[in-house]
Amino acid sequence: MLVQFGHSRIELAQGDITSQQVDAIVNAANSRLAGGGGVDGAIHRAAGPTLMDETRTKYPEGCSTGSAVATSAGRLRAKFVFHAVGPIWRGGVAGEAELLSSAYRRCLELAVENACPSIAFPAISTGVYGYPMDLAAERSLSAVRAFLLEHQQPELVRFVLFDGGSFGAFARALEAMAE
Ligand code: AR6
Question: Are the CB atoms for 65 and 86 separated by under 8 Å?
């Protein structure tokens, strides 16, 4: 599924983010940048140990929730990995929505700063961090759409959803947005 917003487009795909051929792949990291399961584990395994070495050296303090930092991408078919830290879901009363938007925005800023025309996102915070999928889909897509309409770049933002349930949630939210 593909929707054009100004000069840019949002695409939805189902699969494994580590096999994407884009300029930047976004990792759903934790604030210590310590590695973990889910997308984080898959990205570190596919990229190889240089990814953790570089992350530790460049960002010993980690990264705050709602923000993101950039490294190179090791063996992945991308130039960069942007390590984004989404919020842990606490019932929706702890500023989760704004923190989720700002994690996406920071990654898109990093894409522009690093001259990346294409970027792939997982559904940040919807795994271990427990953000409800439908709410995350709506929030994530509207944060990206707002950025694209304002900045007209990057050219391509692809959400790579791991299973049918998350793909369906994002497809419904994107369809509603395109109407
Ligand atoms: N490709 C695309 N999506 C994936 C993949 C993959 N290879 N693997 C899982 N997903 P999560 P979070 C989906 O838990 O909720 C880690 O331990 C998954 O189905 O990876 O932001 C970190 O170190 C879900 O929809 O990230 C942190 O401690 C989505 O990606 C913590 O988890 C995000 O799930 C971050 O939790």
Answer: yes
Q: What domain count does the chain have?
A: 1
Q: Which atom of ligand 1 is least distant from the CA of 28?
A: 21
Tell me the CATH number at 80: 3.40.220.10
Instruction: Evaluate if pTM is beyond 0.85.
Output: yes
Which positions ≥6 away from 111 have C-beta within 8 Å? 23, 24, 82, 119, 153, 154
Domain that holds residue 153: 2-178
Element (H, E) at 113: helix 96-113
Q: What is the pLDDT of residue 56?
A: 98
Q: Which atom of ligand 1 is nearest to the CA of 124?
A: 21
Nearest Cα residue to atom 3 of ligand 1:
162
Separation CA 17–CA 157 (nearest Å): 13
Separation of alpha carbons 14 and 20, rounded Å: 11
- Residue whose CA lies nearest to ligand 1 atom number 8: 39
* Percent of the chain residues past pLDDT 70, beyond the cut: 100
40 is known as an active-site residue = yes
